[in-house]
DNA sequence: GCTCCTCGAGTTCC
DNA sequence: CTCGAGGAGC
């Protein structure tokens, strides 16, 4: 019999037990049992182990103590629920008719319920085997409608003519619905589907069993390499139940198929010299790159595909081959891939692994490669360009700048996290094979709790199996919580949470410290996100108002929020300023994040439409500013030989003055002006990159977009080509001169030219002294020096540069 | 094999 | 919102 059915039967046989398990019963026993769940989370955080034993204990106590809650007091329950967070143990749900009474039903929750928070209501629905989805569709059975539901959801309800429930009706459904077992809970079709699922689970469990027996007898192909056969019972579950066939890899079906196709086509592609793109356009590539988060079967899939296509996978881990040299040596490009392959002889790599024409190179953790030696990724890219064996690279993030050299040479196969449904059947199979009884909704809870990490679910189950063979919803929830991955909320998630409609609503169970905690997920980013997005909500606080009143109230709220933000900024400067008052962090959290949100929280701050959350523009602008400032610094250092003035003076006075000399001619005369422009540039030591900077820093009529539109592409390429084909004067530093340079303050003006450059010109020195006395004397400005002198300086620089070489 | 539908994921840094 | 994977139905 399948686990789900078993548990239903069990629950029917022991109704009282079920009731207690599902957080009904008296307030005290419940408060103890579900301590960490019911409100006041931060304080009632009990050590997981202790909590778990406690649950079991309470359960058995009550069982002995007689039947619980024979009659449900609706009015009292409601009152208790409304008492809310201050009375956390008192929320109550009526006893369900059947434990899986909501099975086969899909729910959508929208709006604010009167006494349950969003998470709680979803949890309740799941507890009774209901299916909860986010978007209403024609497949949705019920929409549980609260206050101020989203307009798009209301539209969907109307469109699909969905049944809606209030909170009380929802609870009533739980109390009365007879579930799928009896009554009309399951249609014929649904029953069939369920049976099919169960059969599939049983079949694959049988298969697994058979395979293990075979392995024990030593017939297994892979396991039997060592002299000893390993008893599967001694293995870790993660090894024991590692996927053996592609069918057992969860999710990413499409990508895996593509990979197989590519490997199967390999010899053909090789013959065609990678000119025939093939079905997916993959056959132009000599390498593929699998990317995706850890623990989703990237490596496993690569190995299985390679084996299935008849290749011998050779795995090179980044930690084995961290440097460029090692990559080249250990893969032995020339010998193995070309000669070795042509000659048909066997070659071994540095690690002593035989490489033949049927080898397939799997480079794992490519991300980690360049940690020690920058050349690692580049060498790999070079290797891929000439390889005669397929290369599969595995990395976490394809778009990382590190991966740049690889991106063009490899076909990208992004893997995604499988969702709970995809993993469920496999876990259920294992559970069944291990003769454990765990209902599907509990398994789901475990899976989502650890973020779809199959290995972790298996670890949890194997540990659990040491003491128990069954697991109910409550226990599953505890176990998941105890093993919860340190949740990595991105700033986007944080913002959505804290500016969303639920965090500050009446039914919210989140304490102040919970909210502050959100800030600490990424304390340097979250405030920026708040600042960027705090005006994009429909504040719940003005929900009930209309017209000018609403506008006025909203403005007032905005004013308060912005004031708080600005206070937060003051605190921030105390933290990050010279005094480093880190103890002010919580204050900053409240002022920059929690308080502004408390005024303006509300719906419309998630995805969808014009209200989408945006990334803080500040960051983009800031990095742009830094970049340009750096570029400007380069320009100043180069021009310094000819021009006095610090960075800002260059920016304000000299660049606009240079514009008519080196940019405008190109706009007006096109290619014919290139020679003159280059001459001007050389006179001021301006390089080709600096030219770009000059354009980029233009404003108004000199704005880069305007300017670049007016310069023909041909002109620009002519400039680049001609510039690159010539020698140019290069200002350069003499070591002893640099040694003399006084230490300058960071951000201050760069040292003046005579100190830094090889320009032992007496006249210049004299110039400088005079200039110090009378900076306004226009004749002394280097910009207005006569042309012959300029030229002399230029050639001198040139000669010096050459001499140095 | 094709089409339609459902449903969740996605955006980034001194 | 928008896209694409995956599933159901024909």
TrEMBL record:
Sorted UniProt keywords: ATP-binding, DNA replication, Nucleotide-binding, Nucleus
Family matches, as InterPro entries: AAA+_ATPase, ATPase_AAA_core, BRCT_dom, BRCT_dom_sf, DNA_pol3_clamp-load_cplx_C, DNA_replication_fac_RFC1_C, P-loop_NTPase, RFC1
Database matches in Pfam families: AAA, AAA_lid_RFC1, BRCT, RFC1
Basic and acidic residues composition-biased segments: 186-217, 725-737
Compositional bias segments (type: Low complexity): 1-14
Biased composition (Polar residues): 25-45
One GO biological process term: DNA strand elongation involved in DNA replication
PROSITE patterns reported for this sequence: BRCT
Comp. bias regions, Acidic residues: 752-767
Region spans: Disordered: 1-71, 177-225, 725-775
Gene Ontology MF annotations: ATP binding; ATP hydrolysis activity; DNA binding; DNA clamp loader activity
Major localization class: nucleus
Cellular component GO terms held in the UniProt record: DNA replication factor C complex; nucleus
Subcellular location: Nucleus
Keyword Nucleotide-binding: yes
PANTHER family referenced in this protein's UniProt entry, alphabetically: CHROMOSOME TRANSMISSION FIDELITY FACTOR 18, REPLICATION FACTOR C SUBUNIT 1
Family statement: Belongs to the activator 1 large subunit family.
Protein name: Replication factor C subunit 1
Source organism: Russula ochroleuca
């Amino acid at each position: 019999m399948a686990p789900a059915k078993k548990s239903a039967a069990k629950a029917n046989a022991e109704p009282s037990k079920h009731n207690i398990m599902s957080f009904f019963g008296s307030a005290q026993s419940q408060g103890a049992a579900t301590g960490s769940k019911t409100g006041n989370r931060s304080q009632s955080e009990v050590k997981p182990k202790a909590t778990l034993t406690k649950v079991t204990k309470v359960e058995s106590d009550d069982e002995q103590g007689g039947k619980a809650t024979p009659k449900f007091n609706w009015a009292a329950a409601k009152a208790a629920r409304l008492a809310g967070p201050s009375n956390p143990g008192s929320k109550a749900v009526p006893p369900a008719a059947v434990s899986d009474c909501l099975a086969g039903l899909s729910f959508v929750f929208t709006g604010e319920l009167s006494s349950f928070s969003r998470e709680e209501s979803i949890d309740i629905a799941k507890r009774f085997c209901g299916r909860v989805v986010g978007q209403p569709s024609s497949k949705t059975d019920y929409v549980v409608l609260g206050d101020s539901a989203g307009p798009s959801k209301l539209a969907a309800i109307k469109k699909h003519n969905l049944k809606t429930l209030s909170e009380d009706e929802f609870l009533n459904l739980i109390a009365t619905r007879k579930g799928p077992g009896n009554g009309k809970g399951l249609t014929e079709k649904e029953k069939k589907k369920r049976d099919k699922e169960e059969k599939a689970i049983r079949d694959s469990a049988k298969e697994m069993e058979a395979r293990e027996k075979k392995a024990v007898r030593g017939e297994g192909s892979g396991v039997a390499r060592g002299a000893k056969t390993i008893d599967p019972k001694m293995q870790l579950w993660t090894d024991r139940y590692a996927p053996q066939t592609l069918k057992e890899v969860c999710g990413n079906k499409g990508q895996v198929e593509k990979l197989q196709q590519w490997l199967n086509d390999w010899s053909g592609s090789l013959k065609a010299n990678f000119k025939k793109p093939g079905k997916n356009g993959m056959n132009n590539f000599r390498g593929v790159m699998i990317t995706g988060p850890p623990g989703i079967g990237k490596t496993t899939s690569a190995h299985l595909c390679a084996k299935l296509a008849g290749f011998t996978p050779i795995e090179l881990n980044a930690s084995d081959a961290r440097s460029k040299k090692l990559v080249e040596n250990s893969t032995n490009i020339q010998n193995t891939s070309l000669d070795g392959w042509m000659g048909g002889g066997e070659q071994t790599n540095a690690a002593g692994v035989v490489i033949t024409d049927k080898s397939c190179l799997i480079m794992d953790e490519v991300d980690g490669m360049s940690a020690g030696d920058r050349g690692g990724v580049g060498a790999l890219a070079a290797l891929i360009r000439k390889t005669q064996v397929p290369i599969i690279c595995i990395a976490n993030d394809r778009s990382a700048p590190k991966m740049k050299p690889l991106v063009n040479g490899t076909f990208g196969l992004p893997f995604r996290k499988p969702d709970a449904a995809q993993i469920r059947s496999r876990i259920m199979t294992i559970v069944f094979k291990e003769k454990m009884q765990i209902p599907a909704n509990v398994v789901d809870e475990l899976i989502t709790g650890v973020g779809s990490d199959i290995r972790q679910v298996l670890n949890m189950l194997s540990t659990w199996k040491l003491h128990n063979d069954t697991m109910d919803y409550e226990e599953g929830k505890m176990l998941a919580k105890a093993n919860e991955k340190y949740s990595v909320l991105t700033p986007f998630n944080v913002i959505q949470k804290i500016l969303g409609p639920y965090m500050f609503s009446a039914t919210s169970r989140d304490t102040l410290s919970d909210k502050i905690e959100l800030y600490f997920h990424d304390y340097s980013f979250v405030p920026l996100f708040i600042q960027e997005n705090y005006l994009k909500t429909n504040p719940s606080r003005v929900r009930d108002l209309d017209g000018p009143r609403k506008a006025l109230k909203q403005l007032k709220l905005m004013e308060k929020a912005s004031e708080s933000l600005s206070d937060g900024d003051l605190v921030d400067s105390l933290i990050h300023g010279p005094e480093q008052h880190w103890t002010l962090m919580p204050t900053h959290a409240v002022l920059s994040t929690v308080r502004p949100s408390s005024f303006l929280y509300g719906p419309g701050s998630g995805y969808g439409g014009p209200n989408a959350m945006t990334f803080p523009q500040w960051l983009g602008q800031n990095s742009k500013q830094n970049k340009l400032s750096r570029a400007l610094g380069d320009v100043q250092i180069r021009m310094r030989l000819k021009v006095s003035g610090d960075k800002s003076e260059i920016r304000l006075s000299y660049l606009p003055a240079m514009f008519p000399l080196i940019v405008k001619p190109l706009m007006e005369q096109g290619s014919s002006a290139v020679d003159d422009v280059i001459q001007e540039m050389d006179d001021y030591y301006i390089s080709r990159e600096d030219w770009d900077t000059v354009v980029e820093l233009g404003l108004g009529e000199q704005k880069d977009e305007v300017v670049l539109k007016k310069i023909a592409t041909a002109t620009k390429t002519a400039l680049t080509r001609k510039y690159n084909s010539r020698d140019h004067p290069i200002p350069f530093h003499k070591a002893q001169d640099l040694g003399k340079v006084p230490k300058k303050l960071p951000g201050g003006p760069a040292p003046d030219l005579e100190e830094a450059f090889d320009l032992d010109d007496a006249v210049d020195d004299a110039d400088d002294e005079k200039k110090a006395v009378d900076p306004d004397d226009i004749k002394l400005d280097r910009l207005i020096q006569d042309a012959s002198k300029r030229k002399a300086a230029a050639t001198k620089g040139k000669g010096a540069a050459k001499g140095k070489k």
